[in-house]
Amino acid sequence: MNASSDAGRDDGNLRVPPVPTPAPQVDGPARGAAVWTWIGVMPFFVFALLFLIVPTAFLMIGAFQDAEGRFTLANFGGLFQQGVLDAYWISFKVSAASAFGGALFGSLLAWAAVQGRLPGWIRPTLMTFSGVASNFAGVPLAFAFICTLGRVGLVTMLLKQYAGINLYSTGFSILSFWGLTLTYLYFQIPLMVLIVTPALDGLKREWREACDCLGGTAYQYWRYVALPVLWPAVLGATLLLFANSFGAVATAYALTGSSLNIVTILLYAQIRGDVMHNPNLGYALAFGMIVVTGLSNGGYIWLRSRAERGRR
User: Where are the transmembrane segments (predicted)?
Assistant: First the structure.
């Protein structure tokens, strides 16, 4: 035997030391590539620090302070005022309705594009539109819906002239709960399409073929195969839609002003308003919103990871 194979054993009075394994060397180009990689992601970390972490920390600290900067819990006691509770309840109802409607119609739309026998150009066109519409919000979206479904909006006047339907005589108003929910659906449905499409792509064709070969029906396939795989992704996406609409402020404020007292508008009035001006109560309102949206996003992340494990 050679010395290398017997390294580290006693050989009489002579002990052969083990041969050290040389550490892997990283050459200059590889180190340079790693440095440039970190430099490339630095703008993301700077953006997250300045526009997410620091403002959130500022709000959380302000929620535990009074006007003089002293520690207090009185701001959280203000959350139990009737007006604040009503604002949270209205926001919850609008968010739940728009999330459920967006999840239902978005899932059906994505299923038609992915699993349906539609022309090939439908899917890329739908995905392109969804990518644009899911980010269309704020004042432009509110103005578009006022021009469409306002009292003298295009659709309102067409229904009245050609169908004899006076939309506003039925009690509908674009400034009401259902008007705001309908407006939110404009970006909730496309967002659901973008989120649930990869989950639908994960349904393997072999699963459907195996179900057909075993004599299973379409109902049995969806009941026992597809839905158990899809439900974590769909439910998680619904939670994400809820958080997305719960934190929306620009669209609601531009559309309804102060006629619909949702929590984001109340928060804006407390921090920037002329009449209602209690910034620390506004920070407590924001803290409550952070808790609600944080729980929703945490549930989405957990369900998404479970859906990925199911597809694997």
Answer: 35-61, 96-114, 126-154, 174-200, 221-242, 248-269, 281-303
Q: What is the Cα–Cα distance from 281 to 84, expressed in whole angstroms?
A: 10
Contact 175, 259 (CB under 8 A): yes
- Rounded to whole angstroms, the Cα distance separating 233 from 254 reads 32
Nearest to 88 by CA among 223, 266, 303: 266
CA distance linking residue 135 with residue 147, whole number of Å: 19
Q: Which residues contact 200 (CB under 8 A, 6 or more apart)?
A: 110, 111, 114, 115, 230
Per residue in 188-223, pLDDT (tens digit) is 999 999 999 999 998 888 888 899 898 888 889 989
**What pLDDT, in 10s, does the model give residues 7-17?**
444 545 555 55
**Helix, strand or coil, per DSSP, at residue 27:** coil
